[in-house]
Write a structure and sequence with these properties.
The chain is an alpha/beta fold and 377 residues long. It has 12 helices and 12 strands. The longest helix is centred in the C-terminal third of the chain and has 32 residues, at 244-275. It is globular and about 70 Å long.
Length: 377
């Protein structure tokens, strides 16, 4: 066995990120402050949005997006089953009911046709997930939602730097939720954010993320003189804000994002070239309207047994694959919803994620290629 372990996902952190955190730690201002504000402004500019509100996780972003749109008990929110559980939990957090719409067979993104089938008079929102970094068919989804008066929230946890029809994900008028978790394309160690083009929503989100306080600590200490101590709580909020230590990492990562995503694309092109003759592997494709950020490289095998044996084969060679994801509607806490999603029920059993991150060397890629090609399906 080769002694070097190849993980399926891994952050790419350099000395510049380390130095940025040290600078914050020496500044004496560690929490929500000037670096967070800088990161918000720079990320909004990158994404083509007017505003970004920085939070402590992508999960918090989804929760606040639903809450600020006044979605709650008695409402239904349409979600895909093949996503990280936070997409669905956020609906439960606000007391609404998740309704599962099936996915497309190729991208595994939410199906517009099945969204239409699942809409009822209780449907208030659709959460679309840009799975693996590949944007959903947003024009079709938006047209359907607009015709029914339904809000769209974009779960872009995988899609930092992705583009839909030449526009960055995060530039639309929808609330778009990002994750800056450890292994995402842009990491803050941990964190999240929401892009929006509306000032009133930005104001509401900033209150909600800081336990409902109308003025955060940085605002009070930097712009007030006599009454810096005073604040008002207009509503119940949460402790969801980002810290300056996280933001400092994010500022550096944002400068590197296009380069990091470029390396991901090189990894993808290498895999596509070396696996194109394997009849037993279905490779992911990019639709004409999409430029993926390639957070994941998911291939489909012909059977569940072949998938599971390939996982074992890779682990024997010290290479870690992944499965993204075990469908949310099959978890014990959501199985009572009895989702009708035949494509998801079948397809998850055949998917496997191959290692994809900017730290992969050419030698690592050759090992992964040799490993997959040596497998007997």
């Amino acid at each position: 066995m080769n002694s070097k372990h190849i993980p399926v996902l891994q952050p790419s952190i350099g000395q510049e990120e380390i130095d940025a955190v040290v600078e914050v730690m020496r500044s004496g201002w560690l929490g929500l402050g000037p670096k967070t504000e800088q990161f918000e402004q720079e990320f909004a500019k990158y994404a083509g949005s007017r505003f970004m509100v920085a939070l402590n996780s992508g999960t918090a972003a989804l929760h606040l997006a639903l809450e600020v749109l006044n979605i709650g008990p008695g409402d239904e929110v349409i979600v895909p089953p093949i996503t990280f559980i936070s997409t669905v939990h956020a609906v439960s957090y606000v007391g609404a009911t998740p309704v599962f719409a099936d996915v497309e067979t190729d991208t595994m993104n939410i199906s517009v046709q099945d969204i239409e089938r699942k809409i009822t008079n209780k449907t208030k929102a659709i959460i679309v997930v840009h799975l693996a970094g590949h944007p959903c068919d947003m024009d079709a989804i938006q047209a359907l939602a607009d015709s029914k008066g339904i809000k769209v929230i974009e779960d872009a946890a995988h899609a930092c730097g992705a583009e839909y029809k030449g526009n960055k994900i995060g530039s639309s008028d929808n609330l778009t939720c990002f994750s800056y978790h450890a292994v995402k394309n842009l990491t803050c160690g941990e964190g999240g954010g929401i892009t929006t083009n509306q000032e009133w929503i930005t104001r509401k989100l900033k209150e909600k993320r800081w336990v409902g306080i109308s003025k955060d600590t940085w605002m009070r200490s930097s712009s007030e003189r006599v009454y810096a101590w005073q604040y008002f709580v207009d509503q119940v909020g949460y402790k969801y804000h980002m810290s300056d230590m996280q933001a400092a990492i994010g500022i550096v990562q944002l400068k590197r994002l296009d380069q990091l995503n470029g390396r991901r694309r090189e990894v993808v092109e290498h895999y596509q070239e070396h696996f194109k003759d394997l009849s037993w592997v279905e490779l992911p494709k990019e639709k004409d309207y999409a430029r993926s950020s390639w957070h994941l490289f998911q291939v489909k095998l012909q059977t569940e047994d072949a998938r599971d044996r390939l996982i074992g084969h890779m682990k024997d060679l010290n290479i870690a694959p992944g499965v993204h994801y075990y469908p949310c509607h099959l978890h014990p806490c959501y199985i009572h919803l009895k989702a009708e999603v035949p494509v998801s029920n079948e397809i998850w059993k055949r998917i496997i994620t191959l290692p994809i991150h900017p730290n992969l060397t050419d030698e690592d890629l050759e090992r992964v290629v040799d490993c997959v090609r040596s497998f007997q399906p």
